[in-house]
Specification:
Strand order of the largest sheet: 1-2-3-5
Largest sheet: 4 strands, mixed
Distance between the termini: 22 Å
Shape: globular
Radius of gyration: 16 Å
Number of strands: 8
Structural class: alpha+beta
Length: 150
């Protein structure tokens, strides 16, 4: 299966999916917030993003566990014929990891990604096999997201 992320214009991205098991063939993203200086779009590695997202208290489970109506709804939403959809917006922060009772040393803080908007479309695309996707983040967190997930 080939999955391709391409930048169509300065502020538009297209994720093409060639998976036969899903009806979505491509998703076109536009920025959720037009101010790309204050809210830049970062192309991230899906696997790294998911590992940081799994530390959040509100993670969406795998698509295979969704009710069929939920899956059908997101597939209709992602349908390219409906036009460009908003890039998922997220935040990233460092969370102190509690050490276990047998550990003498404190563990270093771990990055956590938390979504403002777009958690379901992100989970659907990750489960469909995308290896990279655009995420919009506040400028104050862009360097950390780029360092951890790009």
């Amino acid at each position: 299966m080939t999955i391709m992320l391409s930048q169509i214009s300065a502020s538009c991205w297209r994720v093409t999916l060639h998976a036969t098991r899903i009806p979505v063939r491509a998703v076109v993203f536009k920025p959720d917030i037009e101010d790309l200086v204050e809210w830049p779009v970062i192309v991230v590695c899906a696997g790294k993003l998911l590992s940081c997202w799994e530390r959040d208290s509100y993670i969406v489970g795998p698509v295979g566990h969704w009710p069929s109506s939920k899956r059908a709804g997101i597939e209709e939403f992602l349908n390219e014929e409906g036009g460009a959809i908003n890039v998922p917006r997220a935040g990233i922060y460092m969370q102190q990891v509690q050490r276990s009772w047998w550990s003498l040393r404190a563990k270093p803080p771990a990055p956590v990604v938390s979504f403002i908007n777009g958690r379901h479309r992100t989970r659907y695309l990750i489960d469909a096999g995308v290896n990279s996707l655009p995420i919009q983040v506040h400028a104050s967190q862009a360097a950390l997201l780029r360092e951890v997930c790009a």
